[in-house]
Amino acid sequence: DTIRFWTTEEQPERLAKQQEMAAEFQAATGTEVQVIPVTESDLGTRATAAFAAGDLPDVIYHPLQYALPWAEAGILDTEAASEVVEGLGQGTFAPGPLAMAAVDGGVASVPVDGWTQMIVYRADKFEEAGLEAPTSFANVVAALDKLHNPPEMYGFVAATKVDENFMSQVLEHVFLANGVSPVNYDGAAALDPAATTEVLEFYKAIAEASPPGELYWKQSRELFFAGQAAMIIWSPFILDELAGLRDSAPPTINDDPTSSELASKTGIVTNFSGPSNPDGAAWGDVRYFGITNDADTDLAMDFVKFSMDEGYTQTLSIAPEGKFPVRRGTADEPSKFSEAWSMLPVGVDRKAPLGDLYDQAMINEIVGGLDVAKRWGVAEGQLGLASKMINSQVINRVVRQYIDGEIDAAAAVAAMNEQLSAVE
Amino acid sequence: MNIATPPKGRGPLAKREARLAWSLLLPTITMVSLVVILPLLAIFWISFKPIGLADLRPPAPVLRESLRGSGDDLRIEYRLRNSSQDTEVTDVTIRDTWPESLIVAGDLPSGCDLEGTVFACELGTLEPGFNEQLRVPVALADGADKDTAEDAAEGTKPQVQGNADSILTNFEFTLDNFAKVFDGDEFWSVMWVTIFYTVFGTVGALLLGLFAALLLNKSFRGQGILRGLYLFPYVAPVIAVAFTWVNLFDPFSGSANALLLQMGVTSEAINFFGQRPLALIMVTVFEIWRYFPLSFLFILARLQSIDTDMYEAADMDGASPFQKFWYLSLPMLLGILSVLFLLRFIWTFNKFDDIFLLTGGNAGTRTLTVNVYEQAFAVSNIGAGAAVAVIIFGCLLVFSVFFFKFISREEGL
Amino acid sequence: MSLLRFGYVSGPVIGAIWLFVLATTISVTMSFATGDAFRPALASSLVLGALAGWIAVIPQNKTTKIAMISAFVFAISLTGFGPIVMQSTATSQGFVAILLAIVMGWSIVAILVDVPFGSLSRHEMEEAWIRFLTGFGYIFFTAIVLIPFYVMVMTSLKSQSDLLQNPLDFSLDFNKGTALFRSYYELFRDFNFGTYMWTSFYVSVLTVLITLAFSIPGAYAVARLNFRGQKAFSRSILLIYMVPMIVLALPIYIAFSVTGLRNTVIGIILIYPVTTIPVALYMLQGYFRGLPPEVEEAGLMDGLNRLQVIWKITLPLALPALASVSLYVFMIAWNEFLLAFMLLDDPSKFTLTRGVAMLNSSEIPREHLMAGAVIATVPVMVLFLGLEKFMTKGLTAGSVKG
Amino acid sequence: MGSIKLEGVEKWFGDVQVIKGIDLDIEDGEFVIFVGPSGCGKSTLLRMIGGLEETSRGAIRIDGRDVTAEPPAKRGLTMVFQSYALYPHMSVRDNMGFSLKTAGAPKSEIDTKVNHAASVLKLEQYLDRRPKDLSGGQRQRVAIGRSIVRDPTAFLFDEPLSNLDAALRVEMRYEIAKLHQSLGSTMIYVTHDQVEAMTLADKIVVLDFGKVAQVGSPRELYERPANLFVAQFIGSPKMNVIPCSTEGTSYSLSGGRGGDYHGAGEATQLGIRPEHMEIMSVGEGALDSVIDVVEYLGADCFVILDCGALGKLTSRVSGETALKSGERVGLSFPTDRIHFFDRAGKAVD
Amino acid sequence: MGSIKLEGVEKWFGDVQVIKGIDLDIEDGEFVIFVGPSGCGKSTLLRMIGGLEETSRGAIRIDGRDVTAEPPAKRGLTMVFQSYALYPHMSVRDNMGFSLKTAGAPKSEIDTKVNHAASVLKLEQYLDRRPKDLSGGQRQRVAIGRSIVRDPTAFLFDEPLSNLDAALRVEMRYEIAKLHQSLGSTMIYVTHDQVEAMTLADKIVVLDFGKVAQVGSPRELYERPANLFVAQFIGSPKMNVIPCSTEGTSYSLSGGRGGDYHGAGEATQLGIRPEHMEIMSVGEGALDSVIDVVEYLGADCFVILDCGALGKLTSRVSGETALKSGERVGLSFPTDRIHFFDRAGKAVD
Ligand SMILES: Nc1ncnc2c1ncn2[C@@H]1O[C@H](COP(=O)(O)OP(=O)(O)OP(=O)(O)O)[C@@H](O)[C@H]1O
Ligand SMILES: Nc1ncnc2c1ncn2[C@@H]1O[C@H](COP(=O)(O)OP(=O)(O)OP(=O)(O)O)[C@@H](O)[C@H]1O
Ligand SMILES: [Mg+2]
Ligand SMILES: [Mg+2]
């Protein structure tokens, strides 16, 4: 028997690890798993296309934003996923990620791992200038004033490339920070004009402190690594290369691509607040195993169970810096996986455990973020709708128009409200 | 003498020839109509339908059978699902053959019957998004082993049937797609981008090609090598050169920026492919770069076929080099230039890959063809994509009218 | 304009621009070759160039003039106020100064040969300017064509971290030996590029064969046989040739999705010939028209029927054309990207171009992408250079298409 | 064995009639030449006989059999093309043997026949060359050889010599004449060169815009042209034609004198060949004129005479003539050399 | 005003010498024709005079001025090309006025000159047509008109008539002759058609592989060829050449008889033109032969005579001859018509 598994972790080293795990699974059960890499930005289109053609794979490793929309579109077999979670023991999972994917009587997909988004900043420069860590809009703007000095140093590298998921993520984080959400318990809700305006103005400020052109994760990282950016927003996946462990993305701040100097000068913030929401919020993403409706259900369930159990450490080891365990342990050993995870070395061309590279406090901040991380619609039970809104890229486009000066803030809010309400 | 008139009909030799011609053409005609004419008709059909990517799967009932549980709680489960979330499926029936080794141990679900080993259900209509299980409690016959029973039960595929209305084939039409396409102010910006790209891409490639052709229109050693070299941009796979350009002009790690910075032309890195309106200019420059070799080749061929006597006559007449170019070469090239212009215009208008690879249609570089892709795949609205395609096709028809009017005067290429 | 009709005006003007062009060219070349900083100095180029141009038009013996200009440019370069500003080692500084001096001396004298000091005839002025434009043209075209390919090849041999350090430094560390080719090795080992190449190859060859099988009879009929609708037919070939692929790709995508041909190599082999048959029909039709009908008529008189004539006479005669068409079709199929991109999802079935596209999509290092580009480019280039005559003929015969 | 008969044959290209109803009998072994000005339909007619063009109306019979609807392969004829139309991808041997090979003849037979033809045409040492390695004349011979090998009912030639240079043309003409003598086959030959027509033909068919102007032996056409068209077409320099009027048994020239006339009916034009005109002192002969130009050609001189209203006449005299341009002379037309034509151009005799 | 002088002119294409040192004086107003076999360098020489080809060695003087190093535009010559080389995209008017326009002449002057040239050449009603709408002869006239407009020191013509059909060629030849008469300019004219050469030239230059074989008036060349090459080149059908031997004042033919010989030195070949041979009864004259073919041409007959070991001779007789193929006849060569040549081909006289 053969099942097909789509994964968005398509870098060769990561792919190889998944293939290893598939081989172990085959050895254990006799079922062959074809591991098929899919580019994350193509995932939505390709899944829909495959659904249309009736050749969906059996299991898809996907980010949160697709869980509920796909369940609704009939792509995911929610029962199978629920059954898997039940079989593994609901209690062994962190509650947040399960709640994010909750559907009637279970979950849409099985949560696998997660991460929280971070504001990565140059602690050394902040210290020099006597600035506070960028935990709020105000702190960030204050830092921009002092540190933005192009072309040697840009204050920020904002996400401005409309069709990149990255921009959606960053924007959602900034909106959440100020407590703005396009959904409430009843479904779509108009954005609060005042709070939204604050967000827009803030975003425009960081965009103006960014280099021109369309920017996304690639430029953010390159500029930060070159020492030319004071702040960026990134995922924890940056942690290994930031410490010089990866040749294909080396820090270029000095001549030694393997040095961890930059890491030592870097600070991190996960919880971020705006003027209208002093508590702030962290933004987290969780990845799931979805079992599709065209799947060979039993085999697919077996595979997911295997990956979440015997193979779980292997799964996490793909990139421990960005894959925090959402299943903490088994019923017998409640913290088995958390412990195993903390020992996993990070890095590609060179390896080292995270603890060797960063302060334990910093690591705790990063990991702890996942428990309090928010997403639009999770608390309100409208994650599905919110995901669709995000996937429509309406907010990205309008924000872009705003920062390009094509429309003013009021018009931008109006445009977003109008276009978001059309999404269903 | 009576006025002679031509004979009616064709002679036997002509008839024979025509028959042969048609039989030679038949495979080509079949193939072309299958994969060109039919799709074109399909595009028209689809453009009037409210259809998304997911609708391509016709609604149908989906059934899976499994033997679950153990001991007393043994049951056969049928999972029945309506593949569509918005269309109902009517007259759903199930037929399955059970192995002898299983005995029904409880009530059959309503609508179901068991006759011998044949299990049949009539379930009527499935709601959109229907997804339920039919459970039949069973027991193992004497001496039967569970695993073999399971294999036997799952080994015979259950049959499921049902009727549903497919949006692809029904007669429901709408103008929504066109309304949507024309509504957004996006359409006009796309149109303007297309026109800019097409006009400047074509003209630029022609001018550059003309210049290159003039350079190589004399024989010297190494002329062949240079000619080969100048064709490289056209011959290399688009994917290779497009990515190379993206790398070369990368704002932070591209060599072009590094060079410009170093030369002091700019003090700040330029985001060539990510900045309005530079991105549009850059994709146009890429188009020029990639296709000047073609114009160059054609113009060179034409130049070399110009009678050298004419230039000698002009020498005798005392014309200076620029006069020769202006009064002789240029008018002689006018024919090929205009044919090239028209054809290249059409082809540039149709171009998709280049922009798609360079910018993906971002930063103000979305042309009509990229829009087809965006609508149909990125937004998953196949109907809207088809509508844009129909618009493209309409433009094309207009161009080709021009083209044939013109080409019938200029001798063909 | 009329001022240019004096040698002492045209000479310095041409000289100034030319020296700037040369300085830029050499700066760019040296930058790309060494990664060190070179840049042309505008003011110095113009002044020195004008002087050189002036020297070049004074009535003097040619070698003397070359020597004078070269010595002059060289001397000024050494003072540091030369046309090229560099931050580099002394040896390469000296090398650049000598190179620029010699090239400038020789080329400006060649450009301004026969240009008298005083008033110029129209011919003399235009010829000087044309020589200048010719020189500029060669530099310009060679640069714009070579630079991208140079960058492509060199990037594939370097590592991303080196390039991020200095995007201009393309110098190779030959001590690495075969490790230079690491990204190629990894592409074949980890990314299945061997399979992709093989898939691309047999898909292209099959496309060529199918295309020929369909287009030869069709083209012959349209070109040679008389039947009602012949004209309309040959026009519709051109018309079909003009239908944009993306317009067809959509319904084909749908049809293939519905019939299960999507994501199969068979589907690709079915669809590629459709894109090439119109081209081939168009090219072959032109060629068949150009064959002398008498030879075929001689065959008819010799007792053959039409089909025999095609097989025994026309085809052997059309062999060069078939070669051109095959090559061209091969190139189209090999380079095809759109359909492969839309129709193939499964990495085990990718064609080469689709495989390269995959390399762009994540954090895969850039040298891998460029190595993929090189792998995709080299076979067509080899074919092209080896069979350039056929290829150019093929191109001119059939392809205003792109 | 090789008689060909055309019965009311017509050819239409669309609405244009190119061959306007031709009846013609060609007997076995005859050498028939079609001549006529360019575009008059010679090639078309030949190709119709060969079957390469459809016959729009009428019938073609070969040895009595109606072949009008048959394709070329079945007519048993062979054709030598102006461009030779050799198969460039085959050796001379294969070119010549090709027709036999397609007919399935055994190899030995092909060899015998090819060798025989090659020896007739002195092509033995070229048998293994490709056509492109042959000179024009050799190619021409191969083309003929290809025909000979088939042993055809009749040979068709379409201007076979027009691509050769003058010297070679003379030589090949001589060889074709020899070939006809030795093979004795029917040959139909198209040319626009009247020297070829005169020297080779048993029978010349002069075509004028798709119609037959006259059929006859070379001497007949030269000495007794049936109409003005043939009279002017045959002979070089061409026959001088002067308007005249007749009354009874004498003709008169306006502005000139006149002479005897024996024709029946009225004649409006008088024709006299340059070589038959006699130049005498002014006032003698039928007409006075001024010498315009004397073109010296070595053996001959062409004297162009200006006769005022009657136009320019050309006379051919010996190269040693003492005539000078500007001289006034009289012209006499020997009675038995004069041709008279009526208003419609038909010869009056 | 139009004298041209070549002094030791040579032309090398790479290592190949095409023109091998030519000295030539052309006087003002002369009509000089270069003839010679194909590839002998006629066009090259003409183009060197015009300045379109570099002169490798030697000097060219026009009216005494050394123009060897000057570009074509400065030589004041004009050229009419074989292909006419009209500018296809310009009207006849613009074609003719182009040289003046490039020189910047005012429009009124261009108009006057073009109109004048058009009236000389009777092109008035075609002035607004494009070349492609003209017949061959008209195009030729436009090409000449383009030259006339420039009022050149001399006209150069490179086979200007070879693309025309026979009838038109005769007519245009006549017009060029008239033009030369009326303009009186120097003209240099290349042709390989000897009829053109004989009828047009004041002076013929026969070229043989880059060297001058003979320069002289047409009559000189015909009657007193300086060598075998010229003897065979001029005259059609060409001069018969028979090997002979001489002793004292008599020559003898092997297998034949002989006759008187007046030459100084030894002659090994005897030439006699076809029109000068006399046919008599067998046993008479210098030689016996068998008539091979009689080619009837109307006015003349060419009799091809088989003389066994001496080869085939051609004789030209009247069209009314009664000679038949196969007849045995005797041939006599009138003493004053015989040309003798020595072993090197030089005429012995
Ligand atoms: N395929 C055709 N379609 C239309 N008209 C044609 C065709 N072939 C020949 N003609 C016309 O038929 C007429 C006779 O042509 P044909 O070739 O028989 O002339 P010809 O006497 O052989 O002339 P030439 O001496 O120039 O070869 C010409 O006017 C020609 O234009
Ligand atoms: N550009 C050239 N390069 C090399 N050889 C050449 C060139 N032009 C002409 N020739 C050679 O020079 C010789 C003379 O050529 P030219 O054209 O003058 O002959 P021609 O007497 O005019 O012949 P034709 O009567 O065929 O025109 C020929 O052998 C030719 O091959
Ligand atoms: Mg003809
Ligand atoms: Mg010549």
UniProtKB/TrEMBL annotation, chain B:
It is found in: Cell membrane. The chain crosses the membrane at residues 20-48, 190-216, 228-246, 278-301, 325-347, 382-404. InterPro entries: ABC_transporter_permease, MetI-like, MetI-like_sf. Coiled coil: none annotated. Residues 191-403 form the ABC transmembrane type-1 domain. It is a multi-pass membrane protein. The keyword Membrane applies. It holds the Pfam family BPD_transp_1. Keywords: Cell membrane, Membrane, Transmembrane, Transmembrane helix, Transport. CDD domains: TM_PBP2 (cd06261). Belongs to the binding-protein-dependent transport system permease family. This is Carbohydrate ABC transporter membrane protein 1, CUT1 family. It comes from Shimia sagamensis. The lineage of its organism: Bacteria, Pseudomonadati, Pseudomonadota, Alphaproteobacteria, Rhodobacterales.
TrEMBL record, chain C:
Pfam families: BPD_transp_1. Its main location: membrane. SUPFAM superfamilies: MetI-like. The keyword Coiled coil does not apply. It is a multi-pass membrane protein. The chain crosses the membrane at residues 12-35, 41-59, 66-86, 92-117, 129-151, 201-225, 237-258, 264-288, 309-334, 368-387. InterPro entries: BP-dep_ABC_trans_perm (IPR050901), MetI-like (IPR000515), MetI-like_sf (IPR035906). PROSITE patterns: ABC_TM1. The keyword Ribonucleoprotein does not apply. Keywords: Cell membrane, Membrane, Transmembrane, Transmembrane helix, Transport. It is found in: Cell membrane. Residues 197-387 form the ABC transmembrane type-1 domain. Belongs to the binding-protein-dependent transport system permease family. This is Carbohydrate ABC transporter membrane protein 2, CUT1 family. It comes from Shimia sagamensis.
TrEMBL record, chains D, E:
Pfam families: ABC_tran, TOBE_2. One of its GO terms (molecular function) is ATP binding. Keywords: ATP-binding, Nucleotide-binding, Transport. SUPFAM superfamilies: MOP-like, P-loop containing nucleoside triphosphate hydrolases. Gene3D superfamilies: 2.40.50.100, Nucleic acid-binding proteins, P-loop containing nucleotide triphosphate hydrolases. InterPro entries: AAA+_ATPase, ABC_transporter-like_ATP-bd, ABC_transporter-like_CS, ABC_transpr_MalK-like, ABC_transpr_MalK/UgpC-like, Mo/tungstate-bd_C_term_dom, NA-bd_OB-fold, P-loop_NTPase. Residues 4-234 form the ABC transporter domain. It comes from the Bacteria. Belongs to the ABC transporter superfamily. This is Carbohydrate ABC transporter ATP-binding protein, CUT1 family. It comes from Shimia sagamensis.
